[in-house]
Amino acid sequence: MKKRAYRGFTLSFLVFLLCFSCGKEKENVADIRASAPAERHAPLEGSPRAELTKIHESKWLESCDLKFKDKQMEIVIALEDRQDSINRYNSLLANSSLVVNVSSNDKKIKTVGPLTIIQLENGNKKGWVDDVFGWQEIIDRYEKIKNNTVTEDWYYLDRSVKSIITSDKNRILYGANVFIKKGDEAILTKMSNEFFGCGEELNCIADKFNKYKDFINQQPYYDLYREAFLASSDLDKKKNYRDRFFKRLNWDLIDFGFTKNSNVKWSGKNLTLSLDSFELYEIEAYLKNYIETYWKNEDSMVLVEWKSSNLDKDIFKFKRPSSDISRSFVRRSDEVIQLASIIRSSTIIHELGHVLGFSDSYYEVWDPKKCTYTQQSTDTDIMSGGSENTVTKEHFDRLRLEYP
Questions:
Q1: Is the predicted pLDDT of residue 144 greater than 70, yes or no?
Q2: 401-404 long-range contacts, Cβ below 8 Å, gap at least 24?
Q3: What class does CATH assign to 264-402?
Q4: Kind of pairing, strands 372-378 and 342-344?
């Protein structure tokens, strides 16, 4: 009988990881490995070398990770040795036309306080695009420049390495579901609601596993639980697989769902959002104007109300950029909006979407056969790869649904 393959995994390998015969169920590759999903593009908590060391010590390394392990550390050390020069080059780039690594001449650069903002002209929309990246491409770039002095090539290599280490960390250390792709969110939500509606009824859960078999077959993590649940005749083990599967579904719904902000209120036809300009107080007028200019549609707009996060509860605050931050992000755990020093003009509007409650609308899909990630994004949605002009009626429809 031919084994069913899942983009590099085989069913026999995954079943082995699930350990049917163990008296106490062991962890498996489909189980989540943290208390909550990591922010998908949050910064590294430590130095790249420290974070990479944690990844290399994990028991969840795949063949792809082992393949590049030595060269990954070599590159991280090389970047660490040149970090002062790279940081100086970062400052140089802030006033240079090299600030964005694109071939288009349609970019405009402006400095607002500590921010260097790249305004790209809005051209024809392309829709969904796939951006494939992986360690092999980074290694190839490194080999070409490893004996050269620090230029923009080292700067962009540094950004790429920090970014992919974040992706690896989410996949390996946190157990993020790296197989959910565009088009999956709607069926994931519908399927989860039906599974949760079963409650303790194991027969109902078996029916749902069969009903959604086609979708689950395309999801290696979900299919692990389906195979184990249906194959077991032990009621305690069935309940164990059910509980772990439900935990995985809850995790994935958080990662791709909507998170309410208690400081978002409707005021007539407009939405009021309380924020703290905090370390960017000197440009708060610019931030307020920019947010209110683009977070709007024909009927409604988001109005910014500045408050102190020291006096009011759960207020998101702007942090000042620093040289070790290569990507902007919102961190919900301590209500932080962190902008990188060099950003595209859409970044502020995108990050405010997170503060309002939206998750990212792009997907980072792992291919263990090719050892690459594919980021699927669209330039028609601000929460994906869109410009600041892609706040849509659908965004405000969702806001009215979530904040009645």
A1: yes
A2: 402/258, 402/260, 402/357, 403/260, 403/264, 403/265, 403/266, 403/271
A3: alpha beta
A4: unpaired
Distance in angstroms (rounded) separating the CA atoms of residues 159 and 161:
6
Q: Are 275 and 355 in contact (CB under 8 A)?
A: yes
Supply φ then ψ for residue 146, to 5 degrees. -60, -25
- Beta carbons of 300 and 271 less than 8 angstroms apart: yes
Q: What residues form DSSP beta bridges with 281?
A: none
Contact between 248 and 31 under an 8 Å Cβ cutoff? The reply is: yes
Cβ neighbors of 232 (< 8 A, separation 6 or more) are 20, 238, 241
Q: How many helices (H) and strands (E) does the chain have?
A: 14, 14
Q: In this model, does residue 401 exceed pLDDT 80? A: yes
Can you give the C-alpha Rg of the chain in angstroms?
23
Contacts of 381 by beta carbon, 8 Å cutoff, 6+ apart: 361, 390, 392
In this prediction the pTM is: 0.82
The tokens of 16 are what?
A: 């082995």
Q: How far apart are CA 85 and CA 323, in angstroms?
A: 11
Within 10 angstroms of residue 287's Cβ, the number of other Cβ atoms is 23
- Percent of the chain clearing pLDDT 70 (strictly above): 85
Alpha carbon 374 to chain centroid, angstroms:
12
- Please say whether the dihedral angle defined by the alpha carbons of residues 139, 170, 155 and 384, taken in this order, is positive or negative: positive
Query: How far is it, in rounded angstroms, from Cα 238 to Cα 245?
Result: 10
The sheet that has 115-120: what strands, in order across it?
107-112, 115-120, 342-344
Is residue 120 helix, strand or coil? strand
Every domain of the chain and the residues it spans: 264-402
